[in-house]
């Protein structure tokens, strides 16, 4: 799986991005910069496709400060134009509005401690998914402003599982990494000389403090990737992957409508 010609993949993806943007009558690309491997690889591909018309947006939202540092270092290392817009105040205002209108939800500890993990389980994911949806709105603002496409960072592993927020980080125009599993994205990152710290960082959507993909999914990307590419997995792992994929299939489809 990892024995691929990543130099050719890089060249082909740059050409693909350029064609998709041009076919849409647009001038460039806007990408969310999270400090993670997927956004780092995607932003660098876009910068190589459109050196003067790529914009990275760093959007902290009660986030790990280290992620912002990594995102800035990456952008500055490769000369990617970027903006930083902190969404924390807006997000907290949103939570306070929900709290004041719903007496059954007490978000005071979450808001004051800036710790979403402290929220009750029944509302934790609903609140966490507000973050990528706020980011999506901001990305499309800059896309509209500059006549750019919003370029997503979703990889094949995430798309298989539906492991993204509907109308959040799934609200995009194109997904260049959509045919590469996570381990292949790492191979491409090494080819492109992405910082080793970013390559080896625990994958996380940054939804709450301490959140990471493996703990939330309950499987490692190695298990997921080998099943997707080679069909190699024990029965329990295969069943779990297919169950998650089936429950999230709606995220990959247009809204259902009746056929009568």
From TrEMBL:
Reaction(s) catalysed by this chain's protein: deamido-NAD(+) + NH4(+) + ATP = AMP + diphosphate + NAD(+) + H(+)
Residues involved in Mg(2+) binding: 38, 158
Domain NAD/GMP synthase: 12-255
Enzyme class, UniProt record, top EC level: ligase
GO BP terms in the entry: NAD+ biosynthetic process
Reported function: Catalyzes the ATP-dependent amidation of deamido-NAD to form NAD. Uses ammonia as a nitrogen source.
Protein's name according to its UniProt entry: NH(3)-dependent NAD(+) synthetase
Source organism: Halanaerobium saccharolyticum subsp. saccharolyticum DSM 6643
